[in-house]
């Protein structure tokens, strides 16, 4: 999965628990889904342990359930970007049929937004890149380079995108994996699969 940014934009990888900015992507406006209204006098509902994000696209709505238990740094960075409106008016700029759909940093005119800071890669011991999950994109040669782009897995990509442990404990950046931080709970077949089947063409880099 392609990442965003370039070699000249490298930043130091941050350990879990630190508060750094990060990003992901979507077509159209992306907003946090609001809780259902409650009657006056009812006790306030407890905050959900797995927050959900609504991604509004030109082909319909996608609801993603995030998993902070498996990827707390990634979820925090993603939701920070959502709240900041970073993903508003962005497109899915790369579609690989039966593989992934990538977005998070380009406008419809293919102008890249200002890059965000990179953050710690939580692929080790995390969720698997199976169909219907959302993960952070990064440079394949740099494990801690995820910044603004995310992708949806259109198929089971666990064999080539999950973290692979090395017998000697020195896993290469290439094998470190891509961090999954949530699952599509609504709109996979009706929206994400439709995006994954649109007609595409190459346009420069």
Report Rg: 17 Å
Q: Terminal Cα separation, in Å?
A: 14 Å
How is the largest sheet built, in terms of strand order?
A: 1-2-3-8-6-7-5-4
**Helix vs. strand class:** alpha+beta
Helix and strand element order: EEEHEEEEHEH
Helix content: 10-25%
Summarize the main sheet: 8 strands, antiparallel
Structure annotation, total helices: 3
Strand content: 15-25%
What does the overall shape look like? globular
Structure description:
The chain has 205 residues and is an alpha+beta fold. Helix content is 12%, strand content 19%. It has helices spanning 72-83, 158-161, 188-195; strands at residues 30-32, 52-57, 60-66, 94-96, 100-103, 133-136, 150-153, 180-186. A hairpin with a 3-residue loop joins strand 4 and strand 5. The two termini are 14 Å apart. Mean pLDDT is 82; it is low at 1-40.
Keywords:
about 200 residues, alpha+beta, 3 helices, globular
Question: Can you lay out the helices and strands and say which pair or pack?
Answer:
Blueprint: E1 30-32, E2 52-57, E3 60-66, H1 72-83, E4 94-96, E5 100-103, E6 133-136, E7 150-153, H2 158-161, E8 180-186, H3 188-195
Antiparallel strand pairs: 1-2, 2-3, 3-8, 4-5, 5-7, 6-7, 6-8
């Amino acid at each position: 999965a392609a990442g965003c940014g370039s070699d000249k934009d490298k930043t130091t990888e941050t350990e879990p628990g630190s508060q750094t900015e990060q990003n992901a992507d979507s077509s159209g406006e992306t907003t946090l889904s609001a809780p259902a209204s409650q009657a006056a006098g009812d006790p306030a509902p407890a905050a959900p342990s797995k927050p959900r994000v609504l991604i509004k696209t030109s082909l319909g709505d996608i609801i993603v359930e995030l998993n902070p238990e498996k990827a707390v740094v990634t979820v925090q960075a993603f939701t920070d970007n959502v709240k900041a409106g970073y993903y508003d008016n962005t497109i899915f700029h790369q579609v690989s049929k039966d593989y992934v759909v990538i977005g998070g940093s380009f406008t419809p005119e293919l102008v890249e937004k200002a890059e965000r800071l990179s953050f710690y890669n939580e692929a080790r011991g995390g969720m698997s890149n199976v169909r219907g999950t959302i993960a952070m994109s990064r440079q394949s040669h740099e494990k801690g380079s995820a910044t603004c782009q995310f992708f949806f897995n259109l198929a089971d990509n666990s064999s080539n995108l999950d973290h692979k442990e090395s017998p000697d404990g020195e896993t290469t950046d290439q094998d470190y994996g891509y961090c999954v931080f949530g699952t599509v709970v609504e709109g996979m077949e009706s929206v994400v699969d439709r995006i994954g089947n649109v007609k595409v063409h190459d346009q420069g880099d």
